[in-house]
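Before a colleague's protein record goes any further, I have to sign it off. I want your independent view on whether this chain really folds as the tokens say. The record follows directly below this note.
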Amino acid sequence: MKNLSKFLAGAACVTALAFSTGAFIKVYAAEAPAVAPGQPVDLTYAAEKALPAVVHIKYVQNSKTRTVDVQEDPFGGFFDPFGFFGNPGNGGSRRQQVQTPKKEATGSGVIVSADGYIVTNNHVVEGADELTVTLNDNREFSARIVGADKQTDLALLKVNAKDLPALPIGDSDKLKVGEWVIAVGNPYNLSSTVTAGIVSAKSRGLGASRNGIESFIQTDAAINPGNSGGALVNTQGELVGINAMLYSQTGSYSGYGFAIPTTIMNKVVDDIKKYGSVQRVMLGIEGGDVLNYINAQKEEGKNADLGTNEGVYVANVSEDGNGAALGLTKGDVITKFDGQKVTRMSELQQALNSKRPGDKATVTYLRNKKEVTKTITLKNAQGTTKLIEQADIDVLGGQFRPVTDAMKKQLNINYGLEVLKVNNGALKAAGISRGFIIQKVNDGVVKSIDDLQNLVKRASTSKDPVLYIQGIYPTGKKAYFAVPLSD
């Protein structure tokens, strides 16, 4: 469970707004018992539906051997922190292997289809070597990560099982402030825990992560560490959100929790299943809530009359983004998206979430208090209207292995990935030959095949789908290559 301290370090602007797209098959719940207005709410039906579908996730990151540079003491091992007998640190450095400790953690997940698909938070599973899923009936399964999306903090897992108790998926857009919900998960490793509260707010943006996509459901149902990835469920027994973080001064529940709405989750899951990565459209602006801008101007003794107190203030526009194509300029205020009112940045993010590259969108904005409406065909981060499929390491057309200890010693290096064979593919086209040792890709260190795989995937869906590869040949000659991943 992510914790937010009392002082949230807010992201004042968002560059190149980007959101997932797609659709997810909705599973309908049986009709829940009707409750007359003003009568006490019975949450037992919702709990009975949710408990079998919420799982316990055990995360394991195995111990690993790392080579680090250790500063030598110039006096043969005598530690002189104050420099009384010389200048510490002038003794050079030596390589030393260290063993990282084994890491274990727990979280929650939600079964969203009977054939074994489970949704959780990205931060619950990121970096895991092993994932074990335990169902409410104590059955255990090993899980694999089908795909993950850091910007929405969502991940899709798969277990090899059938006829699992999937939780029906509801429409989070229909939630109302004041509506009763329950949070189901495994806080503090206590399995099958249910807490209740109301929806306290919707479309809440917190600025909790850089470039994150935030339009949270806020609830006062108790959410604690271990609840991450668990279910937020309405009284009809439908999943309406994935629990993600809490507001806390202590690290434990002290008032509010936040869940990712199913309107975002559905599209992320569908894109991962169809394309292997989340399809995003780029608005290409920096900005924030109009009210925040007005208040900031007041603090500086300035009066900002934009013709409205609601909407998204545009502070900057990227030259090659969708915002520029719309004609947006600094000082404009976005007030509608596809005819729907936009009062804050998080609402604009959620509206963009429904679009794919190539889709059309109508944007209404104020300029000098005058309303302008334009329609645009939305482009992705690479400036095209094509769907982006995540590339695999196979696109390189090579075979690899971690560099041997003998080669490390010969070349005076600590890590690298040796190219054993070059077939037809991106490496051959770029001029990389057998024997070359890859050490860095796009400023990411390459120590293993998994490192290279992750860097290829990340680059293939980025604005600049190119691998900038640095490395060394067995002769000691260093080299640098640019390897395009697209035509």
